[in-house]
Amino acid sequence: MSEPKDARRVTTHVLQEMKAQGQPIAMLTAYDFSLASLVDAAGIDVILVGDSASNVMAGHETTLPITLDQMIYHASSVVRGCHRALIVVDLPFGTYQGNSKGALNSAIRIMKESGAHAVKLEGGREVIGSIERILTAGIPVMGHLGLTPQSIYKFGTYVVRAKEEAEAQRLREDAKLLEQAGCFAIVLEKIPAALAAEVARSVSIPVIGIGAGGGVDGQVLVLHDMLGINKAFNPRFLRRYADLHGVITGAVGRYLNDVRSRDFPSADEQY
Q: Which of 200, 203, 223, 226 is nearest to 213 (CA)?
């Protein structure tokens, strides 16, 4: 059911209220004006302009190649299509790691040039300096722990993270550090459900999961995955809500046949 058009704009404060009231937060990715408009009108709370655009929009194997300019382009397109959702933009690989001044400059560019509402970056204690520097400019920051795709060559695999106690304890500590630094929310990706639920209970800020079970404060999925546009990606945590792969290829096939048979355009479809 769609939200009324006069529904209030979602802010970081609204997300905090939702956690306090036990109301689950719904978050999806979007990368362009048309689909972002549909997602926003459907009432989604948070739209993430993810660096997953590198995969689903540009066809790269990883998220690493996408640039800051490209993220700003996608974010600007999404912002123009939205009136309600909180819009969060991923800082791409190489724009914040090990350089807090560079991180601040990157975040400022995203906010000024796209009109988005917040940024997201991956990592814990190793990026606290960048998070704190960005926050000095009044820019809201969402953290991201667990499986961090920008570090895929470090991990060497997309398997579940923090299954061993040492890594789990580091994640617990990093979540606390992100909260203390001033992050307004944290994404936990592909970690054991029990650990994710424990972290969500231990911090006062919203925790949004992807492959992290149902004990967190909200969920996020990649739009192209949950709509069934991308058929090659089949993790356990993904639920497909449509088969747009079949719908689109079927429609294109029918169009092709109608053009070849000269059925399209008909007399009623010309001037």
A: 200
User: 157 or 69, which is more confident?
Assistant: 69
pLDDT (tens digit per residue) in 114-138: 999 999 999 999 999 999 999 999 9
Nearest-angstrom CA–CA distance, 233 and 231: 6
Query: pTM for this one?
Result: 0.94
Measured distance CA(1)–CA(43) in Å, rounded: 8
Cβ atoms of residues 221 and 238 within 8 Å: yes
pLDDT for 231: 86
**pLDDT reading at 85 higher than 80:** yes
3-state secondary structure of 133: helix
**Domains and their CATH numbers in the chain:** 12-240 (3.20.20.60), 243-271 (no CATH)
Q: How many CB atoms lie within 10 A of CB 195?
A: 25
Alpha helices in 115-164 (DSSP H): 128-135, 152-155
Among residues 17, 189, 198, 269, the one annotated as catalytic is 189
Query: Which sign does the torsion angle of CA 8, 14, 17, 23 carry?
Result: positive
Q: Is 198 a catalytic residue?
A: no
